[in-house]
Amino acid sequence: MEKRILKLVTASSGFVTVMACVCLYFFPGIKETFAAEPELNIMPEIKVEVQVQVQEEPPKDVVIEDVVVDNYMEKLNIQLPEGVHGGQVTISNNYLTQTVTVRFAKGVDNYSDDYQVFGSSDYISSLGYYRDGEAGVLEIQLSQVCELAYTYREDYLCVDFMDPHEIYDKVIVVDAGHGGRAPGAVKKGVSEKTLNLGVVSEIKKLFDEEDNIKVYYTRLTDVNPTLAQRVGLANKAKADLFISIHHNSSASGKFNEKNGTMVLYNQTDNSEYSSKRFAEMCIQNVMASTGSNRRGLAKGNYVHIVRNSQVPVALIEVGYMTNLKEFEKIQTQEYQKLVAKGVYNAVMQAFEEGY
Fold it and tell me: How far apart are alpha carbons 98 and 125 in whole angstroms?
């Protein structure tokens, strides 16, 4: 879901801590995930180690414009290499790994010797610069999920890092279980990972119509983020809700009569707006939308993403792949749309009740 971020560029109340120094840190190539750029093919011999200094005051040769309206020092100001203009800069924001990449079409070997990075942000953990062939790459590791707003001033790229809650009323994370080389259950040539993604794709269509709700997805393609990345996205986005979509199977893997919807919750969450309370909303709404049977709620702390979630979480087992009748239904787009509608209704109910 793409949102209009620049409408709140002027919001700066969250950026009050001036960074004295951000030390160099080399990051490994970013694995293929949703919202990530393709993995860079970086040869070790062309990496150039530098130290990027974030200054407390802007350099004297920088012309500061509109300081009253747009606080220059509350942004990260990145000097562009000589000969590089805005059209030759690519900025990507990998929400899953909380990594922002600024790629210059023309790189330099000694960036920190000849160019400057200054400003402030509460959310930057470290920066690193390296060469990738003719290009230069400045990689910024964040401490949480952020949205970006940026402008160009003189020879500088000025980047604002914003907490999503400064922009959107609510934030949720939706996870399509499994993916890539982890297919989940497989029946009659159909993989659980495909069914999970089918439901999430329908969920996305519904939430794309909501301007004030930001949804982050752990995956929208056939990739397999780590469990730590999945739950980390929810925690580092400080999500209001975290939903993971799965499909069930009997313990033996054999077809039988077991059917219905089950929802796992975090049994250690005893807050007013708890995981269990949200899980109950999910099962009720999915059942109401699809007509499925109630398999029940289940304690889910044996599951990594449920146990480690710091936000209200519901892991929804939509139906049984080992029940022939239910297996036929869950493969259809029509049924996946009904599941998605149930999930959407559960989220809206949760927000109405104060989540």
Answer: 10
**Tens-digit pLDDT profile for residues 121-156:** 999 999 999 999 999 999 999 999 999 999 998 899
Return d(Cα 267, Cα 251) in angstroms, integer.
22
The whole-angstrom separation of Cα 223 and Cα 38 is: 12
The answer to whether 337 and 289 have CB atoms below 8 angstroms apart is no
Residue 162, SS3?
strand
The backbone torsions φ and ψ at residue 225, rounded to the nearest 5 degrees and listed phi first, read: -60, 155
Angle between helices 333-352 and 192-207 (to 10 degrees): 50
Are 228 and 183 within 8 A, CB to CB? no
Range of weakest confidence among 40-44, 173-177, 252-256: 40-44
Max CA distance (Å), the chain: 75
| Phi, psi (degrees; rounded to nearest 5) at 149 | -135, 135
Strand partners, 152: 157
DSSP one-letter code for 197: H
Rounded CA-CA distance 95/107 in Å is 25
Residue range 91-122, pLDDT digits in tens: 999 999 999 999 999 999 999 999 999 998 99
Backbone torsions φ then ψ of 55, nearest 5 degrees: -90, 155
Query: Which residues are CB-neighbours of 13 under 8 A, at least 6 positions away?
Result: none
SS3 56: coil
* Residue 85 and residue 26 in contact, taking contact as beta carbons nearer than 8 Å: no
Give the DSSP letter string of 307-354.
HT-SS-EEEEEEEETTSHHHHHHHTSHHHHHHHHHHHHHHHHHHHHTT
Burial readout 185-221 (b: 16 or more C-beta within 10 A, e: otherwise) = bebeebbbbbbbbbbbbbbbebbeebeebbbbbbbbe
Place of tokens 């400057």: 116
Give me the count of residues in the chain: 355
Residue 73 — very low, low, confident or very high, per pLDDT cuts 50/70/90?
A: confident
Pairing of strands 124-132, 213-217: unpaired
What whole-number distance in Å separates Cα of residue 231 and Cα of residue 227?
6
